[in-house]
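Expect sequence, tokenised fold; for instance:
***
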Amino acid sequence: MGIDLLTKLEEEKDQWIYKALARFDEEFLRFNGQDWLNELSAGETPEHQIIQMKKMQYSIYRKKSLDLEQIDQEIKRMKKSLTEEENSYQELTLEAQTIQEEITHFQGLIKNLDKLQLEKFQCEIHTKFELDPKKEHVVFKDRKTSKLIECFNKAEWAMAEFYKEQLEESVGKLKQMMHDAAPPILHEIQTNPPAAALSLKHGRGFDQYIVLKNFEEDFKIVADTFNRNNTIAYNYYADQLNCLKELGKRELTQLCDRKKTFQSMAVKKAEKKQTLKRQKVKWIAKLEERRSKVEWAWNQDLEQLQKLDTILKEEFVQAVSEWQAKLLAKESTDLERWMYYQYCQIILKQAERIIENEYFEYSRG
């Protein structure tokens, strides 16, 4: 009787494992396209076979975990690279905008240079003489050679100062406009315009003009000489100012051309960055799509691992419960109880090795 029971228990001690495998195979027959129950190696113990299967399952699960980690790292790297491309694109765009503002500023300076003009000196010499209100000619006391020469010299001096001040003011404005825009214009200002000498026809003897006609002839000579000298001086200073303006325009135009080149380079670089951004956005989308698929498979593998352990625990509990019930049955003899107890311990050790075996720690390491 004891031998028969021993034989029966020996046959039944692995049945809980087979039942667990059968349930698992039924629920996850699609797992990796294999029928695990029919592919267990002949000649090996069920315990060894189930442990090998769990190792194989975990290996597949771990590989997918590594795939997920690699994809996550690649997505992180690509997003970091995308951020760098975006920052670079923004910097280049801002650079191009800044250069455009500078170009617009310099083009405005060129227009402002055209506004720099000299005003012609105005001086009516006849206003320096007192007129006789009745006869409408210069009163006798003002008809003097010295008076004519004095008025001429004063007008010439006022004219010279007028043009010098105007030119200095215009040059100052030009320098202010050109400040930090272009190299300083090194051009020495000339302040010695050619001038016609005053040569009176009359009045070489006495200072006082006796004959009105003689005074009027010399007065006309004074007025004509001054007007001629005024035109000469105006052209003399205006030519210098125009020369400075042309130099300034040339410098500003060259600067605008250089800035346009830099702007074009910045725009082209920004366009390349924009293209790279679009490519990386697409690549990240593909990676995330791939990650979603791998994660789904990873979750399936994890579910299978967890489900196998759950099934094993359930079948173990069922087997032990049946033997414990027989162990506690009144009709069981002491020998039978001892046998049931021993085999309960055997499958308990089996369960510990199968469900809590050390390969998990090894694989995680």
The chain has a mean pLDDT of 81. The CA atoms of residues 125 and 151 lie 7 Å apart.
